[in-house]
Amino acid sequence: MSAEQHLRILDVTRSTNDEALSRARGGAPHGTAVAARRQTAGRGRRGHAWESPDGNLYLSVVLRPQVTPTRLPGLAAACGLGVLDALDAFGISNETQLKWPNDLLARGLKLAGILVETARDDAGQTFAVCGVGLNVGRAPRGLGAICLAALGDAPSFSPLAESLRSGVVSRVNAWAAASGERPLDGIRSDYLTRLAWLGEKVRVLAAEGGSELACGTLETVDPWGRAVVAGVPYASELVSLRPTG
């Protein structure tokens, strides 16, 4: 299947994740993707609205990795590394890092967000959709964000969209083929190499309400995908991290 058959590009849609979920339920194969220049009802983690202005890139990829359920929580980390691989190919990822568990930062500001959703298709098979919102020409105001244009020349839309699609698929394929039964087996070393705030002091905030639960050094992310702060592991479903500076 050609790149054009794998990737459909739209000017505007409600949500690329919804488009990809619909296609996947109908049997769309692994690696099928939808990209758009604008979303009218984009969403992020925990159902939050995702600001999706024109001038950026919104991409969702159908993924059907053959892994056990215990490994599936590592999919978002593999996707994040795939996005970095795509940016590496354009020579623009020197300043980019992964923010646990699902964002990309550049110069300490948000460059992209990743949302992974799982569902079952019409044949009863489990699949996932990885959604990527990448700030290309515009950074949403007031959100501590940055865009590729601020880092240098931004690539044109179609080549960038295909590079993101292929980068995510390649990383997911390698992750799925790795041995081990823990979520980050096969990618943890690469993940830690690109992890923001590693070895630095961070605040641990409750997912519900945002109250501060702890403050300490981000020591690592363990093989199960939990952030370890001051010796305590935290699951991404329950907390988020913020720098103290």
- Counting DSSP E segments of at least 2 residues, the number of strands comes to 12
- Average pLDDT confidence is 92
CATH level 1 name of the largest domain: Alpha Beta
Helix content: 10-25%
Number of helices: 6
- Going by CATH, the homologous superfamily of the largest domain would be Bira Bifunctional Protein, Domain 2
Q: Which residues form runs of ≥5 with pLDDT under 50?
A: none
* Major β-sheet profile: 7 strands, mixed
CATH topology-level name of the largest domain: BirA Bifunctional Protein, domain 2
Structural class: alpha+beta
What attributes characterize this protein structure?
alpha+beta, BirA Bifunctional Protein, domain 2, SH3 type barrels, 2 domains, 5-stranded antiparallel sheet, 12 strands, BPL_LPL_catalytic, EC 6.3.4.15, Biotin_CoA_COase_ligase, Biotin--[acetyl-CoA-carboxylase] ligase, aa-tRNA-synth_II/BPL/LPL
List the helices and strands and how they pair.
Elements (H helix, E strand, L loop, with lengths): L2 H4 E7 L2 H10 L7 E7 L17 E7 L11 H15 L6 E4 L3 E4 L2 E12 L5 E9 L13 H4 L5 H21 L10 H6 L7 E6 L5 E10 L5 E3 L2 E3 L4 E5 L2
Helix pairs in contact: 3-5
Structural summary, described in words:
The chain is an alpha+beta fold and 245 residues long. The chain has two domains: 188 residues, Bira Bifunctional Protein, Domain 2 (BirA Bifunctional Protein, domain 2, 2-Layer Sandwich); 47 residues, Roll (SH3 type barrels). Helices cover 24% and strands 31% of the residues. A hairpin with a 5-residue loop joins β8 and β9. The longest helix is centred in the C-terminal third of the chain and has 21 residues. The radius of gyration is 17 Å and the shape is globular.
